[in-house]
Amino acid sequence: MNFLSIRSGIKLLLLCILGIHALTGSAQTPQPKDSTDAALAQYRQMLQEANPADLYAAKGQALWAQARGPKAQSLRTCDLGLGPGVVKGAWVRLPRYFSDTRRVQDLESRLLTCMHDIQGFDEQELIDLDFSKGERLTIAQLAAYVSSESQGMPFNVPQTNPFEREMYAIGQALFYMRAGTHDFSCASCHTQDGRRIRLQDLPNLSTPAGAGFAFGTWPAYRISTGSIWSMQQRLADCYRQQRFPKPKFVSPATIALSVYLGVNASGQVADAPGLKR
Question: Which end of the chain has fewer surrounding CB within 10 Å, N or C?
Answer without folding.
Answer: N
